[in-house]
Model the fold of this input.
Amino acid sequence: MTANKKLLVATFAAGLALLAVRPAPVEGASAAPENEAERIETSIAVIRELVDLPEVGVPEALLRKAQGIAIIPGVIQAAYGIGGQYGKGVVLLRGEDGRWGWPAFIRLFGGSIGWQIGVQKSDIILVFKTRQGLEKIATGRVTLGADIGVSAGPVGRRAEASTDLEFEAEIYSYSRSKGLFAGVSIKGASLQVDEGANEVFYGRKGLDPHEIFAGRELKAPEAATKLRDVVATYTSDRRKI
Done:
């Protein structure tokens, strides 16, 4: 068997093991949401908690520059040498007029390679500096670190005065997690639109993600309005520190 085939088999096996794993609740990370409405409510809680963490939250200077934000609560990561990760969340796109569209449901999945062992849950936030990555997600699937660059995000108010004020990476990643897991990285994970969840939540078959991102003519449930307003507050130039 070739090295590539061995890698594919190992990654597939890790994925099966991941689906079978039901880790105990992890302090400091959200439970994986079970339906669309719960996914929205959990996402609201996650972004509030990660942004408002004293001295170690997401820098406001970065949020003001954000063109998109993905929130993925309760991502399960499991590995023994070769691992996998899976989670469901939402992503919002900022329009050219500065207004935020409705949340589109997404899935995060993929394998990872390295000296890893253990199981954990993480709440993940991705801050998109450009619209290109979100456009790719809307038309297919994006692999982080391959199709679009991703870096661990700077944290806290100290980052406001750092040398990285331009925030040159395309995506900055943030997570909250506890538990045994070494060498985990968001690189190599893929993001894909959850078409079924979008159809159920918005009540329309064949809904185009671009319609959700635009957020103008689409009728959305109240929970979507609440999430959009929270994101708009955290990314506003007029927000009080």
In short: Confidence is low (pLDDT under 50) at residues 3-27, 179-184.
